[in-house]
Specification:
Elements (H helix, E strand, L loop, with lengths): L1 E6 L7 H13 L3 E7 L11 E6 L5 H18 L3 E4 L8 H7 L4 E6 L3 H6 L9 H16 L4 E4 L2 H9 L4 E3 L21 E5 L8 H13 L6 E6 L6 H8 L7 E5 L4 H9 L3 E4 L6 H5 L5 H7 L3 E5 L15 E3 L4 H14 L1 H15 L2 H10 L3
Parallel strand pairs: 1-2, 1-4, 2-3, 4-5, 5-6, 6-7, 8-9, 8-11, 9-10, 11-12, 12-13
Helix pairs in contact: 1-14, 7-12, 11-13
Length: about 375
């Protein structure tokens, strides 16, 4: 089967789309064509795997217009199946159904689209509920034209099942990289790691309050290591806040690093942060970030915003630290000292659980069933 992945958001070798999904399809004997909107160069073709690139404009409205070019190219690719990987391209599903009536159309719903769009900074707070309902109506209308939906979280799956869509739950669990050395927990740097976009929605205000606690308690010997880029919409504010801390408290690396290097950082950190502001908790509950499972797999104890849905995967005090929204610093002060005392056990428990339950190798067969 010839499968075309369409995305206007992801990089050419996205961890989930390329390293997990596309390579799984190729290993099962399928052919994959990436049709993506990006300003990165197309990688060299591989066996049964190629990239077709459409240049990405900076303006989001022009991006929608440019996606018409993607539709034309998608039809010319003449695939047996099309996987829509971003909600921004969902509008083309009825047209793909018209031009390619025999093709299988798969909607890869990694994000809860209504919540995601309504939370955009250009949507006024008082309109967010209305915008979410409008987007949900639009998404439900487009789903009528797809054959299969892929959901990454149970909460999102239930929504599509309620809408009558055939839905497969395929978790975004990590791939085990045998080249990463997992250092014993008590031999690691005394680091609390933050990876990814640096923004208020990603709980960065709480991160800075944790930094204040570490600064006031130097005898602990811990520092926060932040690797990522600042949210462009908050650039000046975040730079000003971070500048208050010395490097031995907040170690800042303003860059995206290769995924393998990120895993090495996790394998040498004692704790890993995955936090969200109150406004972002609903979105987080419907996606279940892969970062949690990467922390566990490589032995860093996750420090997480408490979301009831996460109790399916982790246990507070056994293999993670939960911080209750609105009470994060009090929780951190109590639980962090306990976690330091029991860190070796918690790290081992987290890793063993991830190796047993939370690997892409276990999800791969579920994904391939989408294309049977």
């Amino acid at each position: 089967m010839r499968v075309c992945f369409l995305t206007s958001y992801h990089p050419p070798k996205d961890v989930r789309l390329y390293w997990k999904m596309a390579r799984a399809l190729v290993s099962a004997g399928h052919e994959v064509v990436f049709l993506l909107m990006t300003n990165e160069p197309a990688p060299d073709p591989e066996t049964n795997l190629e990239w077709v690139v459409v240049k990405k404009p900076g303006n989001r409205y022009l991006r929608v217009a440019k996606s018409v070019v993607m539709l034309v190219k998608a039809v010319k690719i003449n695939a047996d199946a099309y996987q829509i990987c971003t909600g921004e391209l969902l509008w083309m599903v009825p047209l793909l159904r018209f031009f390619k009536p025999k093709a299988k159309i798969v909607y890869d719903a990694q994000e809860p689209l209504g919540i995601f769009i309504a939370a955009k900074p250009w949507v006024p707070r008082f309109l967010r509920g209305l915008v979410e309902r409008i987007v949900d109506f639009y998404e439900r209308s487009m789903v009528e034209f797809v054959d299969v939906v892929i959901a990454v979280a149970e909460k999102n799956k239930k929504k599509f099942v309620r809408w009558g869509a055939k839905t497969h739950l395929v978790r975004n669990f990590p791939i085990l990289n045998h080249d990463i050395e997992v250092i014993p927990w008590d031999s690691r740097d005394r680091v609390i790691l933050y990876l990814g976009l640096i923004s208020t929605k990603r709980g960065f205000d709480v991160v800075l309050r944790i930094a204040e606690f570490l600064k006031a308690n130097p005898e602990l010997g811990y520092r926060i290591k932040i690797i990522g880029k600042l949210d462009p919409g908050e650039l000046e504010r975040l730079e000003r806040l971070i500048s208050r801390f010395p490097r031995d408290v907040v170690d800042l690396v303003l860059d995206w690093i290769p995924h393998e290097k990120a895993l090495m950082e996790i394998a040498n950190a004692r704790f890993g942060l995955s936090l969200f502001s109150k406004d972002a908790l609903r979105h987080a509950a419907a996606t279940t970030t892969n970062k949690i499972f990467e922390y566990m797999l490589y032995g860093a104890i996750p420090i997480l915003s408490y979301i009831p849905e996460l109790e399916e995967f982790v246990s507070d005090g056994a293999d993670c630290i939960f911080l209750n929204p609105g009470n994060e610093i009090v929780d951190f002060q109590i639980k962090f000292s306990q976690a330091i005392e029991h860190g070796i056990r918690m790290s081992r428990t987290a890793r063993e659980k991830a190796l047993e339950r939370f690997l892409w190798q276990n999800e791969k067969s579920k994904f391939l069933k989408v294309y049977e």
